[in-house]
Specification:
Structural class: mainly alpha
Oligomer: single chain
Helix content: over 70%
Distance between the termini: 36 Å
Order of helices and strands: HHHHHHHHH
Radius of gyration: 20 Å
Number of helices: 9
Strand content: under 5%
Number of strands: 0
């Protein structure tokens, strides 16, 4: 009888974990896109992170911040893949020589990866500095510094007008972002 009750509790915990994990899908996809810059790679990364979270569900402490926990898994997965990727490709001499030349690439990220990541976690993700620091694996002061530098860089870009404008008001972009989030959360 005790074995059956334990199995019922375990199944209920799995259902609760699954429900909470599914609710995080739009957030994981959005964070992955900020890291990858490529929608297809980001979706793969988010899926891998969700699989790792599911496999590690026994180590998750219910009642703690699942969003921060899954973001840390996703971030670690991203950097692990990034570290592995340089070992998997052959050195292309021409490509190596081209990297020595500064190219004005409009598709290049505006901010360094660490600053962009911190700004997205704190600014868009709504994480406290302490939570963002835990996700990034660094000190709280480091996150605060990265966010501050990122905000200054974005402000300088906006003041200089060094970005393409489509003529639409910023509110349209926000409505579009929120509509996409609603669509993603409704597609579960």
């Amino acid at each position: 009888m005790a074995v059956i009750r334990e199995a019922d509790r375990s199944a209920e915990a799995d259902r609760r974990f699954q429900r909470d994990l599914v609710q995080l899908i739009p957030h994981l996809r959005a964070f992955a896109r900020t890291l990858c810059g490529d929608a297809a790679a980001a979706d793969d990364l988010a899926q891998d992170a969700m699989l790792k979270a599911w496999d590690a569900r026994q180590s998750f402490q219910m009642g703690t911040n699942m969003k921060a926990w899954t973001f840390m898994i996703l971030r670690n997965q991203f950097y692990s893949e990034k570290r592995r990727s340089w070992r998997q490709s052959q050195l292309d001499q021409e490509a190596a020589e081209r990297t020595l030349i500064a190219v004005d690439d409009p598709s290049a990220p505006v901010l360094p990866d660490e600053q962009r990541e911190a700004l997205i976690l704190v600014g868009a993700g709504g994480f406290a500095y302490e939570e963002a620091a835990a996700i990034c694996g660094c000190a709280v002061g480091t996150v605060k510094s990265r966010v501050s530098r990122a905000r200054r860089a974005v402000q300088a870009i906006l003041e200089a007008g060094g970005f393409a404008r489509d003529g639409k008001p910023a509110a349209d972009a926000m409505r579009s972002i929120l509509a996409d989030a609603d669509r993603m959360s409704g597609a579960r």
